[in-house]
């Protein structure tokens, strides 16, 4: 993900904003609920994207990936809506506790821009629900030039969206974030339709990381900067997730966008180790 990438991140203030009171108040209703789950992964599983990861002779990359990570931010579905047969094949190739988070096809978000998309949404949902218990949180990312002047279109889309299907929504244009009234209206639409507000932690756009939650699910897309800075950033995330869990958070989907080559370590290794230690989770620890 290139959104918010910068050439030099050394002067950027990566400190978090305080957890908004609206989020703390909202999470209160889930505080007594049982269970807490964390899923951490990468955007893709192919050998071309995870260079140097797969042992020589690996025949099923997806199966091996699912043994090392418990989720994938599935960007492959952005370019082509999957068939039901393909969904079933992917499902059967993964471990029992694995989760797919498929990205809605660009024909819905970028080409149609939410206009007249009922049939496309229905086809995507009808296929991906076949992941069944392995369906995590699907997500829909709007293009960067999609602006809040079409707020009514967003509301109409969300009101018609299939109820009960897990969805995170992402907007990028600065106008969504720099006007409190606009952003407040947007959050109200998400909350009233039980749709998750995507948190984007990227160096060049700190405004998109608001910690305004609209469901008891934290869906994070983390864009790397430099190894040393990223380690500090992820340490802060461990503490913040711990805070949100205490407030009532139920689930976390955390996806790391970093360049992977044969010499580069996975940022998730230390991150998952810290989450297991601090939150009592049992996340797999991937090693090259």
From TrEMBL:
Pfam families: DUF72 (PF01904). It comes from the Bacteria. InterPro entries: DUF72 (IPR002763), UPF0759_sf (IPR036520). Gene3D superfamilies: Protein of unknown function UPF0759. PANTHER family: UNCHARACTERIZED PROTEIN YECE, UPF0759 PROTEIN YECE. This is Uncharacterized conserved protein YecE, DUF72 family.
């Amino acid at each position: 993900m290139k959104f918010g990438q910068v050439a030099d991140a050394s002067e950027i203030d990566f400190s978090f904003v305080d957890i908004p009171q609206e989020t703390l108040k909202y999470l209160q209703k889930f505080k007594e609920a049982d269970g807490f789950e964390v899923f951490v992964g990468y955007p893709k599983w192919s050998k071309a994207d995870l260079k140097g990861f797969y042992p020589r002779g690996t025949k099923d990359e997806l199966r091996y990936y699912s043994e090392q990570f418990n989720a994938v931010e599935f960007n492959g579905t952005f370019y082509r809506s999957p068939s039901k047969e393909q969904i079933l094949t992917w499902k059967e190739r993964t471990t029992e506790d694995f989760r797919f988070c498929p990205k809605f096809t660009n024909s819905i978000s970028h080409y149609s821009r939410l206009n007249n998309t009922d049939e496309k949404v229905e086809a995507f949902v009808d296929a991906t629900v076949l992941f069944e218990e392995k369906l995590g949180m699907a997500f829909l990312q709007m293009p960067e030039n999609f602006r809040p002047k079409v707020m009514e279109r967003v509301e109409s889309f969300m009101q018609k969206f299939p109820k009960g299907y897990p969805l995170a929504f992402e907007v990028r244009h600065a106008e969504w974030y720099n006007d409190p009234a606009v952003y407040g209206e947007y959050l109200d639409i998400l909350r009233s339709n039980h749709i998750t507000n995507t948190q984007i932690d990227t160096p060049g756009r700190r405004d998109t990381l608001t910690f305004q939650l609209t469901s008891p699910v934290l869906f994070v897309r983390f864009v790397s900067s430099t190894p040393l800075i990223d380690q500090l950033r992820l340490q802060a995330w461990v503490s913040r997730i711990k805070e949100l869990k205490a407030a009532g958070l139920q689930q976390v989907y955390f996806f790391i966008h970093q360049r992977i080559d044969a010499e580069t370590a996975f940022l998730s290794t230390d991150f998952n180790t810290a989450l297991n230690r601090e939150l009592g989770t049992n996340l797999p620890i991937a090693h090259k």
